[in-house]
Amino acid sequence: MLVITSHLYVAPASQSECLMAYRPTVVFDLDGTLADSVHDLLSALNRTLARHDLPQFAPQDFVELSPHGGVRGMLKHAFDTARVPLSEQKHDFLFAETVRDYDDNIAVHTKLYPGVLPCLNTFEREGWIMAVCTNKPYRQARKLLHELDVAAKFSAITGGDSFTVKKPDPQHLIQTVDQAGGRPERCVMVGDSKVDIQTAQRAKVPAIALDFGYSNVPVQQLFPDAVVSHFEDVFERAIDVLKTKER
């Protein structure tokens, strides 16, 4: 059978264990998981709000803002908070304005979290397939990963507009794994939020939660398969949760 030891793979001994021959896949969320992107996103949002004489948001506000549905939702929340009317036409205009600004300044302050690159290198060296599954628009996700010089490491990068569904719909994750050439039965999801954990659970994929991302509740309360505080621990936890699933 295929055995995960420390980092050693053994060929399957029988047809009944054929599934174990598939390379394992690790799928990462992007914002709040691989990259700390809050400053560039909020800067673009705040520049739009400033042009319309609305109060600015501080980085510490982002955890509360993030569940409001991306840039479009955060804009509406800003107007609602200031008790300023926002028509649908104006909402569309401000959204497009903010997206253009963010596109032009997507990696000014955004950085990979400490330990991400060594972690990706370990998964790559040990033969895992890697992918990114984010609700960020595909074009922005790919651009950001290129700017951070890690896009080439991923066999698939999918965004919230890549399919007809997005997280927490499990098909977003399942189709990402398929696009990467992996199998959901041999997959682990790494994320920082309720959406990521719910997506993995609905897809019957083990979830590893990072406790330093953008979740507005402690990730332990969301019952992931493992919680980690440092990227240096992600690879070992991925082996552990995959072993547990395959028993």
Fill in the keyword field for this structure.
247 residues, alpha/beta, 9 helices, 40% helix, disordered N terminus
Description:
This protein is about 40% helix and about 10% strand. The chain contains nine helices and eight strands. By secondary structure, the protein is of the alpha/beta class. The protein has a six-stranded parallel β-sheet, sandwiched between helices. A two-stranded antiparallel sheet has the order 2-3. The protein has helices at about 40-50, 60-65, 70-80, 90-105, 115-125, 140-145, 170-180, 195-200, 235-245; strands at about 25-30, 35, 110, 130-135, 155-160, 185-190, 205-210, 225-230.
Quaternary assembly: single chain
Largest sheet report = 6 strands, parallel
Q: Estimate what percentage of residues fall within beta strands.
A: 5-15%
In spatial order, strands of the major sheet run 5-4-1-6-7-8
List the uncertain runs: 1-16
Quick structural gist:
This protein has 247 residues and is of the alpha/beta class. It has helices at 38-51, 62-65, 70-81, 88-104, 116-125, 138-147, 170-180, 194-202, 234-246; strands at residues 25-28, 35-36, 111-112, 129-133, 156-158, 187-191, 207-210, 226-228.
